[in-house]
Amino acid sequence: MVTDKHVFYNFMFEKAINLYHNILSRDSYATQLNFNILWSKLLSEMPTHKNTYFLGTLTTVITSWTHVGYPIVQVNRHNNTRTLEILIRDCFLSNMKNSCVSTWWIPVTYITIQQSNMTYQWYLQPDENNIIVPNIEEDDSVLFMDVPGYRVNYDRKSWENIALFLKRKTSKILSDVSLAQILDDAFYFLIQNTDYNENFDLNTNDNLDIFFDIATSVFHVNNSYIAWYPIFTAFEYLSKIYPFPESAYIKDRILDVLHKFLEDSSHTPSSENNVTNQLYYEVLKWACILDSIKCKDIVMDELTWHIENLAQNRLLQSWQKWIFCQSLMVENSTYENSSIWYTLKTMYETQLKEEEMFKFLPCSRLRSNIFLSFKSFATTFLPSSERSVDLKKSDRVSFVFTIYAKHSKTLASLTSILEEIRYIESDINIGALMNCIINNIYSDEGLSMVTDGKFLQMLRNRHRAPSYVIVAVKQKVDDRRALLVKVKNIFFPNRKMHLFTEI
Question: How many CB atoms sit inside 10 A of residue 34's CB?
Fold first, then answer.
């Protein structure tokens, strides 16, 4: 057992840093010599510690963590002996010639679920590379606390027990950092890297459900951004499958988490740039990405509050343009008849920043607004404006590519932009533009629209596309179609999900 006398106190750590800095300032090349001098000086100046053996190994213990990488600790259940085994399973190193098992000295701090008021401390060392936890019941497990720099994977039953345990406990059990570590490890081992799950079944959503059961424990920590961060990272990772209709189940599970936060939040519009507001807008962003029914009302409330008093009710700078864009999207009105568009245009005209309004043209999903956007890019006249805007060609081209990328994902919008491509300036690289469109299509029907004979003939006639461009478009469509088939076979076998393989 690691006791109080073994602890490397903060003042010792500060002393070590100072010594290390002073040594390096004299000689930055003799690294190993620096370490030797550092430890000998440090130990000689700590006379109050009697444990000579532990202090003597301090050099090895701390130096083992100077490698670029980290170990993976595994928890295995042994039902026949009613024990859990904690051991070093794997590692990630910049130099894989080194063995992680014989490299790291790993501090371990854990609780058992049935006795969560007791904390146990130990360390895995190279010559004793496992810890046995006795008297483990079927619904029991260990739970690591304040993990310093390594990942922890649990056996499947332990993951299930941890999810149940966290659901019924309060924030006093785990620190925000500990919960964030558990969430990050749960997503990595249960979803993102199922090589570590021997009993993983492609045809069930069980692992996904366990992760989201653990994620609901985030509501016990007073909406800490630290605890939410790995959840946002998981949403980002999963976002690659959102355009597929088969992803409905996972989007529903995500919306369950987001809606609970939005329903329980006491948020009111505010100009204060604090963690609470940043967290709220981040949750709202994901709700809007997934077309949440709550997105429209909240976004419109934020905009209304802002417009009522532009000077006093300021939106957070980092979220202002996003809220403007979302407002235009959820309003679902033509730009000529849009009160929001008129308000924003007036605001930017007053600030002499009319060119900024072009960035909002791709926001709307309305077919008529998409047509109007292309006209505006070509003429540099904003909708409902009586004068041309001095818009640089590079900005105009960038905006055109943005609107094509944004609206190629749905069949309704794709139909609109393929009709309007005939009006795109002939000096724009049509090959690059077609690549942009194809890379954002997620259906075989959409790809077939791109290779339609009449459409390809229009490219030849209007844009004088040479034969090699037409061939390249057809090849790109074939490659994209093959990729979509691969994605569906991996992510949605029998309409279920497997999320490990990177695409």
Answer: 17
